[in-house]
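Reminder to self: tokens first, then the designed residues, so the page reads top to bottom the way the pipeline ran.
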């Protein structure tokens, strides 16, 4: 993707809309929609790196109630011709084709490379990557198993959604309790994962969410790892102007 002069690419992650309740998250949703309204003025593209919702599950003919402002704004931006790319997180990994068919937003379930101008990005949510997080990795196999997804789909949505939302808020769907503090570069799993990926191929910038903590870690002389933070405590986002990447606070 070549970025036109005067345009920028924006990155955001971990809104967890709906948590702890729809009413409590509404001010955060309005703030995020206001941000989308601002960045659409000069956006060449927008990357959303997962956990937009605290829980999301698509039945064949039913999607979760709520989030009208966010979905409407994303539809407006997409319809205007600005591409939006969505990477599922551990709270909204059950996305199917709703975003693609209704909003024209492609959905990715694994990290993906993007060449933006002459800068090679490696982009994803970040859950289950790196040397640790073994408990979540085992649980994710259950969450994504087609048989268990089929069983859950047979629950009435009023029952299934209530159970899932309770577990999502109370247990953070195995997000972990260390999201809010820096673990030290040697213990930051996504930084270690990025270093490992560098051994097989050079990428200029690794961008992830999941950690809920704004981070910028130098991996080598010409490569770095960025974590976008969240829209719960930090309200941080990333901006790439075609030459440099910057973390900003809204």
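Designed residues (250 positions):
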């Amino acid at each position: 993707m070549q970025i036109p002069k005067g345009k920028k690419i924006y990155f955001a992650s971990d809104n967890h809309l709906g948590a702890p309740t729809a009413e409590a998250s509404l001010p955060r949703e309005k703030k995020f929609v206001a941000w989308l309204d601002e960045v659409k003025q000069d956006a060449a593209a927008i990357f959303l790196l997962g956990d937009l919702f605290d829980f999301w599950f698509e039945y064949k003919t039913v999607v979760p109630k709520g989030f009208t402002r966010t979905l409407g704004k994303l539809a407006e931006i997409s319809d205007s011709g600005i591409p939006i790319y969505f990477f599922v997180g551990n709270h909204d990994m059950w996305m199917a084709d709703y975003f693609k068919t209704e909003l024209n937003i492609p959905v990715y379930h694994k990290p993906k490379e993007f060449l933006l101008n002459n800068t090679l990005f490696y982009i994803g949510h970040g859950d289950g990557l790196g040397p640790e997080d073994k408990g979540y990795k085992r649980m994710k196999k259950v969450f994504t198993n087609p048989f268990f997804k089929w069983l859950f789909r047979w629950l009435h949505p009023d029952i299934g959604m209530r159970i899932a939302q309770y577990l999502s808020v109370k247990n953070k769907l195995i997000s972990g309790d260390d999201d809010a503090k820096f673990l030290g570069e040697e213990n930051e799993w996504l930084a270690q994962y990025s270093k490992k990926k560098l051994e097989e191929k050079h990428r200029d910038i690794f961008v992830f969410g999941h950690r809920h903590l704004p981070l910028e870690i130098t991996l080598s002389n010409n490569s770095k790892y960025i974590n976008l933070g969240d829209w719960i405590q930090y309200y941080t986002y990333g901006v790439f102007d075609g030459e440099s990447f910057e973390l900003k606070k809204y």
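The longest strand covers residues 214-220.
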